[in-house]
Design brief:
Length: 140
C-alpha cells in the first residue's frame, strides 16, 4: 500500500448525493479541501491567521479522476502527500472507501501563495511543511 503523510476519515451524508444516489462529483473536491485544511492545522498553521498576516494560499488548479462512486453512509478516508513544483505546492489526494479500501477518486491540487496581494515563490510552503516535504521525498 502507498504511504501517505496525512489521513482523515469522514462519512458521506445523504444531502451530498445526487439523483443517482451517489456522491455528487463536486463533493469530492469539498472532501479534499477539508483534508487540506485539517492537514494544515497539524502543522500549527491556520488559514485565518495567515490571512490576517496578509498571506493567502490559494488553489490554482484542480484535477480529479473519479474511479468508484461513494454512496450515502459510506465511510471513507482522504489520504494525501505533497511536493513542491517551482512556486507551487502540489497536493496528491486519494479518497478510499474504508470498507474495502477501494480507490474512489484521485486528485492533484496545485496551490500558490500570495503575500500582500503579490505572488510569492512559495517560501511559506517550505517553512510550514519542511518536515513533511523532506519526509515525502523519502517515500516517493
Amino acid at each position: 500500500m502507498k504511504k501517505y503523510i496525512f489521513e482523515i476519515e469522514m462519512k458521506v451524508r445523504d444531502y451530498e448525493c445526487d439523483l443517482q444516489c451517489v456522491v455528487n462529483n463536486a463533493n469530492y473536491q469539498h472532501y479534499m479541501e477539508h483534508a487540506r485544511h485539517e492537514f494544515l492545522e497539524t502543522t500549527g498553521a491556520n488559514f485565518g491567521k495567515l490571512h490576517q498576516q496578509g498571506i493567502d494560499a490559494m488553489v490554482a488548479r484542480v484535477e480529479i479522476d473519479y474511479k468508484v462512486s461513494l454512496i450515502s453512509g459510506d465511510c471513507f478516508a482522504v489520504r494525501l502527500n505533497i511536493s513542491r513544483e517551482g512556486a507551487k505546492l502540489v497536493f496528491f489526494e486519494d479518497i478510499y472507501r474504508i470498507s474495502d479500501q477501494q480507490l474512489c477518486a484521485r486528485g492533484r491540487i496545485e496551490s500558490i501563495c500570495v503575500k500582500d496581494g503579490k505572488l510569492t515563490r512559495g517560501e511559506l510552503f517550505d517553512k510550514i511543511f519542511a518536515s513533511q516535504l523532506s519526509e515525502n521525498i523519502k517515500i516517493n
